[in-house]
Specification:
Elements: H1 17-20, E1 35-40, H2 46-62, E2 69-74, H3 77-94, E3 101-104, E4 109-112, E5 117-122, H4 126-130, E6 137-141, H5 148-156, E7 167-172, H6 180-185, E8 186-187, E9 190-191, E10 198-203, H7 214-222, H8 228-236, E11 251-253, E12 264-270, E13 277-285, E14 288-297, H9 305-311, E15 320-322, H10 327-335, E16 340-342, H11 347-355, E17 360-362, H12 366-374, E18 377-379, E19 385-390, H13 396-421
Parallel strand pairs: 1-7, 1-10, 2-5, 2-6, 6-7, 11-17, 12-15, 14-17, 15-16
Antiparallel strand pairs: 3-4, 4-5, 8-9, 12-13, 13-14, 18-19
Helix pairs in contact: 2-3, 11-13
Bound molecules: adenosine-5'-triphosphate and magnesium ion.
Amino acid sequence: MTASSDSYTLDWDLRQVKHLINKKFYPLLLAMTRFLVLVGGAGSGKSHFIAQMFIIRILAAMSRGIKHNILALRNTSPSVRHSVFALFLHYINEWKLDHLVSIKHSTMEFNWMGGSKIRCTGMDDPEKIKSFENLTSAWYEEATEAYPMDITQLNLRMRGKKQTKKQIVLSFNPIDQNSFLNDRFFEGGQPKANDPTATVMHSTYKDNEFLNDPDYEAELESLKDQDENLHNIYAAGLWGTLKNLIYPHYREIGSEDWPTEFDEVIYGLDFGDAHPMVLLEIGMIEDEIYERSLLFESRVPIDSMVERFEELGVDKNAFMYADPSRPDLISLLYDGGFNIDKADNDVKAGISLVKTKTPNIHAGSLEYLKQRKAYKLKEDRNGNVFDFQPIKVRDDGPDAERYGLYTYFSEMDMIPRVLGHV
Ligand SMILES: Nc1ncnc2c1ncn2[C@@H]1O[C@H](COP(=O)(O)OP(=O)(O)OP(=O)(O)O)[C@@H](O)[C@H]1O
Ligand SMILES: [Mg+2]
């Protein structure tokens, strides 16, 4: 269906929206300020709400002949495709709106009945951004990754007379108290009082009525005993600093850059129950390493694990190195035909090895990327660091990576030594 540019009579009952969005965010639908700032901890519902809000605005405008022109951004195009673009697709599907919109997947564009548009892109595509004029709204997701200039530019692209409110929406975890966003919108850690240009909403997982995941909540709270900064940022949604990061080096890549063939594929596996189980596929081409999570899930049923791995297309000939704490599960997968072995769990040597790599990580591995970006060393109360002692919370992804890479490389190194004895 092609979307018409005329006004369109909506066959969707907008009164439903109150039940579909978190109560905490509901008043934000009415915020008229130039900036709408959603700061908060992990899983508070920020991203879902913003995607819902833009769709609701478009639906409400549809029969009134008003056209929204919305730009949704993150720092890179691959990360946009797997987060904000995927979220809009999710709600179009969930709310059965596909007859109201035509979608161009290649360019991540939504053209709605009535003439409104949503376009998604990464800041790494400046030419594309320049082509967007007369924006009515913009969303910068994970805005701590933005430069102040990016936001100034967006502001400039939102001039001119339009019937709609013009608003820049910024959403982020407060991961760096030195961020320009702290300076611009906060004072002493609190939203600036009396800033007529901004509405700032703070939220945590406790505000998310749709989360219903006690394991996730318990894990966030357990950060309290391990690291004050991480607890502040991800549980309390307060400004902190991510310092003493273990793996600062990585590249995020999209499906278009994911190789079709590798010299070698291996797997790293961290078992879990309340904590997620992570199965990482690690591809290698000469010195380049490519990683993506095939599974990142809590409470994976054990009795169907073999079938699940088969469905995921795991290559039974490829080496799989697994969390050595569960020999029972290793046996189960071995009996299911997988080439699995227990990993070498030498944390110090493992981290030292992984630190030498700059893996290309698939942008669709959202949870894995989140964990890896925040993976950090333990500190004592005075901020002194414990060498090679990572925080043991939200470490499932980095553990799976270390099991895979370290065991593989140490076994490869062994080969010439073994042969030397023959
Ligand atoms: N309105 C909603 N309807 C249904 N589920 C929701 C809704 N809002 C949030 N959720 C659920 O809550 C989870 C967390 O929400 P969301 O990803 O929006 O949080 P966030 O604040 O953006 O988190 P982060 O800071 O980690 O990016 C989602 O994965 C989804 O399962
Ligand atoms: Mg989010």
